[in-house]
Amino acid sequence: MKVFVVDVAKCVGCRSCQLVCKDEHCDNDWMPYAAPQPDTGQFWMRVDEKERGQVPKVMVSYTPVMCQHCENAPCMAVAKDGAVYRREDGLVVVDPVKARGQKAIVEACPYDAVFWNEELEIPQKCTGCAHLLDDGWTVPRCVEACAHDALLFGEYEDFADMLEGAEALKPEASTAPHVYYLNLPKRFIGGEVADLEADEVIIGAEVTLTNKATGETLTTVTDDFGDFWFKQIDAAEYAIDVVAEGYLPRHVEDFVSTVDRDLNIGTIALYQA
Ligand code: SF4
Ligand code: SF4
């Protein structure tokens, strides 16, 4: 069974995958797997970009998204006359002839991975470059183009070791996707510790983050700029404790929440003991 592995931590947002997908499919006829993709309006491979946090503590995450080649595929469930089928290797394909007029296939996909071709009146999406695989290629164009190893493709068994802890893009959709994500972005908290009276940042202050619901703690120290970061943390309510030699300890918990967003908590001031 073929699977894709997407390591979000390795993706730099270069969009080479997106571009070569266009190069492969726009105006090219790969029947029986795909009719030509129009020049505009469709992204069978797309890279979702999200800016997180608040200036100046901002991070940008890039998440490549394509058809998830689901085991429990809603697109297949609504398709009539076998218009969506699964190949023996697990790739889910929309038959461009049988799917004519079946707009419901577009609407059924929880990943927005299917596009409607107005001119041909067909739903279209990633085929996993099935035409190339049939021709001896071992990976689709997008995977071959990724210079950062953020995209992998192959047999499930080949990646079994690295897939422990892998996640689905939308677990709530319960579609059992054959695209496995590593390092999907969670939340972060960033901030800085400073002595405002001395007008200086405090280097090496110990900062402890406590999850108020679970009691779990994480500790870090401020860097040469007085900055601290807690990355890949849960969406939760937290408390922060800061200690530094020569200063009174400080406890902060008002508005330390990542429930709805990543958080730049700003400056935490310490006062000399
Ligand atoms: S080619 Fe690789 S690194 Fe570039 S956007 Fe695509 S997945 Fe990310
Ligand atoms: S991602 Fe969408 S189009 Fe692809 S198999 Fe799943 S439901 Fe179907």
Written account of the structure:
- The protein is mainly beta and 273 residues long.
- It has two domains: 2-182, Alpha-Beta Plaits, CATH 3.30.70.20; 187-269, Sandwich (Immunoglobulin-like), CATH 2.60.40.
- It contains six helices and 17 strands.
- It has helices spanning 16-25, 74-78, 104-108, 130-134, 141-145, 156-159; strands at residues 2-7, 45-54, 57-66, 84-86, 92-94, 115-117, 122-124, 151-155, 179-182, 187-195, 200-201, 206-211, 217-221, 227-233, 238-243, 250-252, 263-269.
- The strands form six sheets. Strands 10, 11, 14 and 17 form a four-stranded mixed sheet that branches. It has a four-stranded antiparallel sheet with strand order 13-12-15-16, with no helix packed on it. A three-stranded mixed sheet has the order 8-1-9.
- The model has no long low-confidence stretch (mean pLDDT 97).
- Bound molecules: iron/sulfur cluster (2 copies).
- One iron/sulfur cluster (SF4) binds at residues 67-70, 73-75, 92, 109, 111, 113-114, 125, 175.
- Residues 67-70, 73-75, 92, 109, 111, 113-114, 125, 175 line the site of one iron/sulfur cluster.
Tell me the count of domains: 2
CATH class assignment of the largest domain: Alpha Beta
Number of strands: 17
What is the C-alpha radius of gyration, as a whole number of Å?
24 Å
The pLDDT mean sits at: 97
> Which architecture of the largest domain would the CATH scheme give at its second level?
2-Layer Sandwich
The third-level CATH topology of the largest domain is: Alpha-Beta Plaits
Largest sheet: 4 strands, mixed
Give the termini distance in whole angstroms: 63 Å
What structural category do the secondary elements indicate? mainly beta
Low-confidence stretches: none
Run of helices and strands = EHEEHEEHEEHHEHEEEEEEEEE
Bound molecules: iron/sulfur cluster
| Beta fraction | 25-35%
Number of helices: 6
The best one-word shape is elongated
Q: How much helix, percentage-wise, in residues?
A: 10-25%
